[in-house]
Amino acid sequence: MPLPLTSLRHRFLLALGGVLLMTMAGLWLIGRLLVLPALLEEEREVASRELDRLERSLTHNQQLLMAQVRDWAHWDDTYAFVQGQQPRYAQVNFSRSMFEDMDYQLMVFFDSDGNVYWVAGIDPASARYASCAEPRGDCAWAAAVITSLQQRLESVMEGGSDYLFVKPWPALVGISPVLRTDESGPPRGWLAKVRLLDEAWQAGVHERTGLPVSVEPALTAEPGDIHVLLHQDEASLMRVSRYLPASQPGLALNLTTQLPRDTIRTSLRTFRYALGSVVALMLLVIALVLLLLERMILRPLRDFTRFTHSLQDPAKTHSTPAALLARDDEIGTLAREFQGLLEEQRARTSSLLELARHDHLTGLANRRLFDARLDEALITAERNAGSVAVMMLDIDYFKPYNDHYGHQAGDACLVQVADCMRRLADRAEPGLRPLVARTGGEEFSLLLEDSDHDTAMGFAESLRAAIVALDIPHVASPVGSPLTVSIGVASATSPPFDPHALMREADRALYAAKAAGRNHVLDAAEEP
Ligand SMILES: Nc1nc2c(ncn2[C@@H]2O[C@H](COP(=O)(O)OP(=O)(O)OP(=O)(O)O)[C@@H](O)[C@H]2O)c(=O)[nH]1
Q1: Does CATH number 3.40.50.720 belong to domain 45-283?
Q2: What contacts 24+ positions apart, CB below 8 Å, involve 24-30?
Q3: Cα–Cα distance, 96 to 86 (Å, whole number)
Q4: ipTM for the whole predicted complex goes beyond 0.85
Q5: What are the transmembrane regions (predicted)?
Q6: Hey, which of 393, 398, 483 would you mutate to test ligand 1's pocket, going by the most ligand atoms within 8 Å of its Cβ?
Q7: Distance separating alpha carbons of residues 30 and 78, to the nearest angstrom
Q8: Ligand 1 pocket, 439 CB below 6 A?
Q9: Which ligand 1 atom is at minimum distance from the Cα of 403?
C-alpha cells in the first residue's frame, strides 16, 4: 500500500530517510574514493619497503659469495691448480660436504683460454655430487650453465664480477680471475661459483628477514615493478613481487613474498565501525527529530485540524483548545489569531442574524422572526394543550398622516408607537411574554404565548388606550386627533393550530375594527 504523502509525518519520515540514505551513500563513496585508495597506497609503500629488505638480503648474499669466490681465486694453490701443478687440489678441496656446507651448487675453473679446467658440484635434479675435468659424463648437467659462464669471462672485472642467473635455475653467480694469494698476476684463468636460490636459500632468507620468499624466472615485465597479486580487501595476506633484472638478456627474476594485511584490515574495520556508528547515530537523531516534530508540531497541528473540522457542525460551539492558546510559539500565535477571527466571525454572524430578524426602523422583531416564534408557540401549545393569542394592530389613517406631516414625521410616529408597545410588553405579567413585531408598513403584530383570550383582549385594549394616550396629533384624521390604532385579536385554543388561519382571523378582526369606525379592538371570535 503506498504511503499517504498528504501526511506531514510521512513526508518528514521520507525526507529524513532520504537524508540518511544520501549520507550513507556519501560515506560509502568517501570510503571507496578516498579512504581505501589511501590505505592501499600506504600498503603499497609497506610492500615496497619489505621488498627493498629482501633485495638487500639478496645483494648481501651476492657480496658474500663474491668474497668467497675471490678467496678461492686469489690463492697460490688455485693459481698452481689451473696451471696443472696441483694434481691433488681437487681431491683435497672438493667434497660433497664442502659444497653442502658452503651452499654451493657448482664450481668451475677455467684456464686462460676460457676452456673448462675443472668442474665440480651437485646436480640439482638428481642431487648427485660429481667432480670432473670436463662437463661430460657425471658433470654433463652443468654444461648449459657453463656455456653461459664462458660468455661472460671476458667481461669479468679484475676483482671479480657477480651475476644473477634465472636459467637454467635462479642462481647467484660470482666469477673472479685466478691470481696469486697476494693478488699478483698475471691471471691464469677464472673461477666461477654458482649458488642456487633454492628452497634452502629461501628458508635462510625467511629466517633472517621474517619474510617468506620465493623466486621464479620471468620473461616479461619492467624490472623494478611491484605487482600486488592478491588484492581483495578481505584477504589476510597479500602476495607482492618485484622483477629484478637478470644478467641474461630478456629475463628477470620475480622476487615474491607474502605480507600480512593487518594494518589495512584494522583500518578498514575501524572505518566500518565509524561508519556504523555514524549511521546508528543518525538513526537515533532522526528518531529524536521525529519524536520532537511529533510532540512540538505534528500533534498540536492535528489537534488544531480536528478543532477546525469540528467547526463544520454548527450545533456545537467549540472554542480553540486551551493548550493551543497557551503556547508561546508560532502555533500558539496562530491559534490565538484564529480564535480572534473566529470570535469576530461569530459576532458578525450574530449581528447579521439580529439584522435579519429585526426591523431596522423600530428595532422590533420583523415578520420572519414573528412567523418563526408563532410556529414554535403553536407547536408548544399543541403539545401542552395550551393556547396562543395573536393580534394585528394598524395605525388609523396613516396615509393622511404621512401626507400631512411628511414621511420623516411618519417614521418618527412609527418609532413612537413601537416604543410604546415595547414598553407595555416589557411591563406585562411574566407568563404572558408578548412579542411585538412590525409586520408591515404601519402594521404591527403581537404574539402572546400561553395566554387565554380574555387576557389577550385586555392587553389589546390597554395597548390601544396607551397609544391614544401618547397624544400624537393627527389633524388630518377623519376620526379626529390624536392618532389612534385599530386592533384585531384572534386566539388558538384547540388543535389543529394553523398559523396562517390564525393570522387570517386576526386580520379579519382588524378589518372589522377598521370598518367599525377605527380606534377599536375587535375579537375575531365575535365576528361572524
Ligand atoms: N413614513 C412612513 N410611512 C409608511 C411606511 N410604511 C408605510 N407607510 C405608509 O403608510 C400608509 C398606509 O396607508 P394605507 O394602507 O392606505 O392606509 P391608511 O391611510 O393608514 O388608512 P387605514 O389603514 O384604512 O386607516 C402609506 O401611505 C404608506 O406610504 C414607513 O415606513 N414610513
Answers
A1: no
A2: 24/279, 27/275, 27/278, 27/279, 28/275
A3: 20
A4: yes
A5: 12-40, 273-293
A6: 398
A7: 68
A8: no
A9: 27
Q: Is the CB of 507 under 6 A from ligand 1?
A: no
Ligand 1 atom nearest to 406, measured from its CA: 1
User: Given phi > 0 = left and psi -120 to 50 = alpha, else beta, which region is 406?
Assistant: left
All residues at 6 or more sequence positions from 465 whose CB lies less than 8 Å from its CB, including other chains: none
Every domain of the chain and the residues it spans: 45-283, 319-348, 367-526
Residues assigned a catalytic role: 442
Q: Is the separation of the CB atoms in 280 and 23 below 8 Å?
A: no
Rounded average pLDDT per 10-residue block, the chain, 528 residues: 67 87 90 88 88 92 95 94 91 93 94 94 94 92 92 88 90 95 90 94 90 86 58 67 86 88 84 88 89 88 86 73 86 89 88 89 95 94 90 96 95 96 88 88 92 89 95 91 95 88 95 94 80
Residue type, 470: L
**The listed CATH number (3.30.70.270, 1.10.8.10, 3.50.30.30, 3.30.950.30) that belongs to domain 367-526:** 3.30.70.270
Rounded to whole angstroms, the Cα distance separating 234 from 246 reads 34
User: Residue 260 pairs with which residues in a beta bridge?
Assistant: 237
